[in-house]
Design brief:
TIM Barrel, seven-stranded mixed β-sheet, globular, binds iron/sulfur cluster
Length: 201
Amino acid sequence: MMTITYPVHNGIYVNVTNRCPCACTFCLRQNGESVYGSDSLWLEREPTVKEVCDSIDTWDLNKYNEVVFCGYGEPTERLDDLLEVAKYIKSKSDIKIRINTNGLADLIWNEPTAPKLQGLIDTVSISLNATNKEEYLKIVRPKFGIESYEAMLKFTKECTKYVPSVVMTVVDIVVSKEEQEICRKICESVGATLRIRPYEG
Ligand code: SF4
């Protein structure tokens, strides 16, 4: 059975794709198949919008705080489908909707994508992961190359205009304490909040 949605703490997580333009050194995709007790987040194929909506309908959303687009891959690889699912969720529930992303949607789609999130997405959580573009390239290994870091920061800043909550995350084992402080300043400069998260590999 392929896992499209699965519960984590107070959220329903949605797995829409395994595609990603990056190859982060710490990516869970490289560390075995099963996380969070689900059978497997490797999709046999990408679920259709209808299949995702049907899967969300199997949960009582009143019992959860948020729906999170996440999974083994970059959810904005399917941005339009994701937003269609978000619209469906909004039509039936007040539950908050979050996207966990590498922040490279503008490079994936070659256009500004943040405006599309308005009214549909409540939180965007972007992986910052490094204090400068060279380090970012080494850790995240995006296929777009050295310009990726600046594009990610620009996307983040844009999101603050259209999305109520914009968070940047760093994994605790990836950046040192000193670097965390620099990350905090970078977040402030783009209007986002830093969250340091534990490594879950
Ligand atoms: S951006 Fe996310 S899914 Fe993509 S390689 Fe990095 S950790 Fe993995």
